[in-house]
Amino acid sequence: QTGRIEPNYPKICGHQGNVLDIKWNPFIENIIASCSEDTSVRIWEIPEGGLKRNMTEAVLELYGHSRRVGLVEWHPTTNNILFSAGYDYKVLIWNLDIGEPVKMIDCHTDVILCMSFNTDGSLLATTCKDKKLRVVEPRSGRVLQEASCKNHRVNRVVFLGSTKRLLTTGVSRWNTRQIALWDQEDLSMPLIEEEIDGLSGLLFPFYDADTHMLYLAGKGDGNIRYYEIGSEKPYLSYLMEFRSPAPQKGLGVMPKHGLDVSACEVFRFYKLVTLKGLIEPISMIVPRRSETYQEDIYPMTPGTEPALTPDEWLSGMNRDPILMSLKEGYKKTSKIVFKAPVREKKSVVVNGIDLLENVPPRTENELLRMFFRQQDEIRRLKDELSQKDIRIRQLQLELKNLRNSPKNN
């Protein structure tokens, strides 16, 4: 259904601060992970048929970051493994079967801007405000490759499927927007750098591994450029661009199994247009007249079945995603149900560090309450100190009088 929704339409409103990122679970279609300025990550279960009333209770609340949480990402092949990146410069890996963080990646020196997985989820690429691009082995937290991007200040990164290449968007030393292609095993120099334009908005990259297409959409732009990625030089071939007068603030993407294969739809964006207060679907369609299933543009694609359990992945196993065909259309076959764990522990210990010890206030109200409590405590301690000073002076006088009394002489 399309059209304007009512102003009092039900919402998910359980966070105590601004929501900074949300991601749908790739294997359980009614589960969402969200993160917020209130330092929490929360898991929400959307009831069958959609929301009927405002949802304030999450099925799982995850606390481990000491500052606001800016990014969440689901593992691409393993069920119930979630990554979160906070403004405390840490990436936590959560095992939702137990509702606890099981690993911590602590190699960044500034705010993490973007995270991307390779096809089987064995590698994690990150961009950081410290102008570095890193390829990390997530289970050990070991940095395998690192690029110090002085000429190309990186903002976003995406793995290009199974090609062992990375694509980053960023800004050149002359403040022009540019993209760079990297070999994941050698980040000493980019394979190519290409300048896009002189605008200032962030460039969001989206890669479709099935068609080898790269889509570039700029924040505040009205257009979406698309390129074909090749295995040989020049690697990037510009095709065309979608143009629109309405600027986009952000974009979401429909999973492959939700596309209309009968219309040769190969990609679908959901464009957030803040000026008009709407979300506009944008379909990328291959113009073909034949109504038969097009095998070449719809190869086998990662499906909705996880390839590994959390314990298998944490033990060191890697496995490619389980593929599905879109020929018969999407049928809901997954029987996986999310079960929130029962937790009683008050401490969260990862790598020998209690993450919940001395956690700072999560909201402005909490900060004010803590401030006033501390002011009262300081006032009480000052009064106590002054009383003790008076008592000390009294005892000193009494001691002096005792020494000077005639009896002692």
Automatic annotation (TrEMBL):
Stated name of the protein: Coronin
Organism: Fregetta grallaria
Gene3D superfamilies per record: YVTN repeat-like/Quinoprotein amine dehydrogenase
Coiled-coil ranges from the UniProt annotation: 378-405
UniProt entry keywords in alphabetical sequence: Coiled coil, Repeat, WD repeat
WD repeat residue intervals: 12-54, 62-104, 105-146
SUPFAM superfamilies hit by this protein: WD40 repeat-like
InterPro entries the record matches: Coronin, WD40/YVTN_repeat-like_dom_sf, WD40_repeat_CS, WD40_repeat_dom_sf, WD40_rpt
Pfam families assigned to the protein according to its UniProt record, in alphabetical order: WD40 (PF00400), WD40_4 (PF16300)
Similarity comment: Belongs to the WD repeat coronin family.
Domain of life the protein comes from: Eukaryota
Gene symbol of the encoding locus: Coro2b
Gene Ontology MF term list: actin filament binding
